[in-house]
Amino acid sequence: MLLYLECPCTSFPRSFARDYKETYCYPPPSTIYGFLLSLIGEVDMAAHLGVKLAIGLIGNEPAISRVVRKQRHHKFSRAHLGTYPTSKFSKPNHHELLTDLQVVVQIDSSEDSASVTLEERVAIALSTPEKITRFGGLSLGESWALVNGIRLYRETDGIIRWLIKDNRGLISLPVWIERKRGQGKFQRFSLSCNSFSETCWVQILASQPTAQSSGFKASKLSEKSG
Questions:
Q1: What is the mean pLDDT of residues 135-143?
Q2: Is pLDDT of 218 > 80?
Q3: Could you give the maximum distance between any two Cα atoms of the chain, in Å?
Q4: pLDDT for the residue 17
Q5: Is the dihedral of CA 34, 57, 1, 175 positive or negative?
Q6: 17, 174 Cβ separation under 8 angstroms
Q7: Could you tell me the pLDDT band of residue 209, with boundaries at 50, 70 and 90?
């Protein structure tokens, strides 16, 4: 299945971005996977682990704009009981945006872990949307970045430049982000003008805990038991 989607304005904040929110110049596989789950109304991130995705761009490099946005800065605190006044916890920060993004996504569900594969559910969502249950707007990246639409790719849409896996590539993108542990799995890519190849496929798999973090947890448990 080959999908075409366009987003007039979006942002893919880099993992290390703090006050100045830099953006990845290309849609990360982790973001595309989350987008597809949102399309079919799936809230379980692990529902379709094992699926393979290939990501391509159409047209020129998306333009990067730098704007000033008001952002909230706070950590959860029992003292505030969920109340964070704007005057104390908000301040202006620079934010990078991508505009006029045209993306092509190819799905391979041959190793999908679900009985009803992601490819099948996306086909249902596109052909008979009344059969799915979802909520909120369909966005690519952050919740405000609504897409213009999604459909099957047509040759008239333009030539596809695919992201290909390349350990020496200059494009580093997250494939999976583990929010609870603050860890992730990254892959390096290059942008190819050649035809599609097997190196375009990226498999979505959850990252495993590192030995260091596992040992830390085990030591904490032993301290408590002792």
A1: 89
A2: no
A3: 68
A4: 63
A5: negative
A6: no
A7: low
DSSP notation for 119-168: HHHHHHHHH-GGG----S--BSSSTT-B-SEEEE--GGG--EEEEEE-TT
Question: What's the rounded Cα separation, in Å, for the pair 110 and 85?
Answer: 50
Least confident residue range of 70-74, 107-111, 122-126, 188-192:
70-74
Token code pair at residue 31: 């973001």
CB 125 within 8 A of CB 152: no
d(CA 161, CA 175): 19
Amino acid of residue 132: I
Which position has the token pair 């690519």? 140
Burial grade of 2 (CB within 10 A; 0-12, 13-18, 19 or more): middle
- What pLDDT digit, counting tens, does each position of 38-95 carry? 999 999 999 999 999 999 999 888 888 887 766 665 555 556 555 656 656 666 677 7
- What residues contact residue 110 under an 8 Å CB cut-off, 6+ apart? 52
What's residue 103's pLDDT?
96
Tokens of 143: 């919740």
Q: Tokens 């569900």 map to which residue? A: 109
Closest CA to 39 of 175, 143, 133: 133
Cβ 28 vs Cβ 175: under 8 Å: yes
Token couple for 139: 């966005």
